[in-house]
């Protein structure tokens, strides 16, 4: 029993350990899907990237966060849920036009994510917990409407905008409490969400102005945390990846850049840095009573992800696409291999607590009485 208790505390038995590792594996493989003898490599690339890499990262975060929301551990073994999620990705490569991998493998994982939140009656968290279920529906629709693949990166950017808009301030609030700093006045999330929605739905001049205003909203949120510790600086840089993503949307609409530039900036410069900044917190350096500190490989991975996004854009804009594609693919895969070089050795070790943040600073009122 004692050994079992130790086993349950190891990182590999936690959703963050399993799903962040699987998301990184999907990311490493993503640039090289084009080399496989697939009937529709474009569709496979989209499914592996948006629903594999993005979906696994989102599921891992929600499964981890639900313990704080409900006060209970995730009820399903993380390894079992991870095996289903990985099986769904492998099946989509072998059976690209079949619906059964989605229904038999992806759908159960999405329900596993949602059920604890519904059972705990955390109705305020239910919309976020339903995101994996919405991704399942989107992937099923994609089989009949492959043309939707070009719209899904914008939907993922909206998800990063909203989820990050709630997550980033919560981490920054703890950093301010450590420093006894007050909360600054910031434009509310609902205002940013309205601006983003208007920018995405209106492709005219008004929509472009709304996108620019949404970029400014992100900049204000991101600059706010650059001085609140290294881990929060990395998180805010990741969230600021929305700025080039939204700028790419506006540029593609005006014909300044090809649509594929927009797609890859949204996935590589927006999704990639944000996912990395959150997942890396699990294995950042921890000192009692101090804040998280990214490892050098975490910072190197962030630089490689951003550099790969730039190289991928050059592949569409320059006349030397093969060279820039190789640079982008190599940099992207190297970034996630660096992440795995810190994450995988931590899997058999006891999971840190809290998983995604340092131990909270003790309030004076919380100090033990003598």
How would you describe this protein?
The chain has 15 helices and no strands. It is mainly α and about 375 residues long. The protein has helices at about 1-10, 15-30, 40-70, 80-95, 100-120, 125-130, 130-145, 150-180, 190-200, 205-225, 230-240, 240-255, 260-280, 295-315, 320-345.
Name a few traits of the molecule.
370 residues, mainly alpha, 70% helix, 0% strand, disordered C terminus
SSE diagram, text form:
Blueprint: H1 2-9, H2 15-29, H3 41-70, H4 78-94, H5 100-119, H6 126-129, H7 131-144, H8 152-178, H9 189-201, H10 205-223, H11 230-239, H12 242-253, H13 259-279, H14 296-317, H15 321-346
Helix pairs in contact: 2-3, 2-4, 2-15, 3-4, 3-5, 3-7, 3-13, 4-5, 5-7, 8-9, 8-11, 8-12, 8-13, 9-10, 10-11, 10-12, 11-13, 12-13, 13-14, 14-15
